[in-house]
Amino acid sequence: MPSFIAKCTPSLGVVSQFWSRCTESVAWPMGLGKMMLYRRDKNGGEIAEVRNHIVADALEYDRTCNPITHLFWVDDDVLILAGSVKELLALKADIASGTYFLKEEGNPQPLIWPKDFSDGPMLPFVPDKVLPIRFCGMGLTLIRLNVYKMMAAQLGDELSKDKYGHMQFYKTDKVGSIGSNNVASIGHTEDWWFFKHAAMI
C-alpha cells in the first residue's frame, strides 16, 4: 500500500494560472503518492477553520484509505520551486518550512520567529541557511501527519473543537499580549496557534 503526501491549500477560491502551473510542476519523490486537499474559505476570515477541515480530511483518509506521511501546506499566494518537497523532506524534520514573506507593499518581512512572537521576525533575513525557529508562516510548510495525531492525543482537551466541529489545530487568536521585551502584540494568526501547541508535545 503506497504512502501519500497530501498537498494542502486553504483558499479564498481564486488562484492564478502561475500558481497552478507552479504547484503542478513540483517534482514528487519516487515511491510516494500525491493527493490534493483543497478547501475554500467560503465566508472569509476563516482560514484557520479551513486548515482544521483539511487536517480532518487527511486524518480520515489516512485512517480509512491509504497512509499519509506528511501534509505539504502551500498557500494560494505562494509560488513554489519544483524541488520544494524534496528539499523539505531531505531535512528529515517533523516540521520544515520554506520562507514565507509578509506581502506588504514596501515592507516585505520574513515570517520567521527564532524566539517569542512579540520579539518580532528574523531581521535581517539570512537566505540559504537551515535555522531552528519557534514560529513561522504556514505558506510553504511540510509537517508529518504524526504531529497532528500526537497533538490530538496529548492536547485534545486544550485544543477543543472549532465552530464546525473539527479539532482546533489552528485558531486565529484575537487577544493581545505583552512579550518579554515589553512589546505589545495584538492577536495572532492561525499558524502561531499551531506552533504554540505543537511545541507542547
Walk me through what this model shows.
With 201 residues, this protein is an alpha/beta fold. The protein is built from five helices and nine strands. It has helices spanning 17-24, 47-64, 84-90, 145-159, 190-198, and strands spanning 3-11, 32-40, 68-74, 95-97, 112-113, 135-136, 140-144, 177-178, 184-185. A five-stranded mixed β-sheet has the order 2-1-3-7-4, with helices on both faces. β1, α1 and β2 (32-40) form a beta-alpha-beta unit. The chain is globular. 29% of the residues are buried. The model has no long low-confidence stretch (mean pLDDT 88).
Oligomeric state of the chains? single chain
Major β-sheet annotation: 5 strands, mixed
Give the SSE string: EHEHEHEEEEHEEH
How many β-strand stretches? 9
Summarize the structure.
The chain is of the alpha/beta class and 201 residues long. 28% of the residues lie in helices and 20% in strands.
Write out key terms for the chains shown:
28% helix, 9 strands, 201 residues, two-stranded antiparallel sheet, alpha/beta, 5 helices
Please write out the topology:
Elements: E1 3-11, H1 17-24, E2 32-40, H2 47-64, E3 68-74, H3 84-90, E4 95-97, E5 112-113, E6 135-136, E7 140-144, H4 145-159, E8 177-178, E9 184-185, H5 190-198
Parallel strand pairs: 1-2, 1-3
Antiparallel strand pairs: 3-7, 4-7, 5-6, 8-9
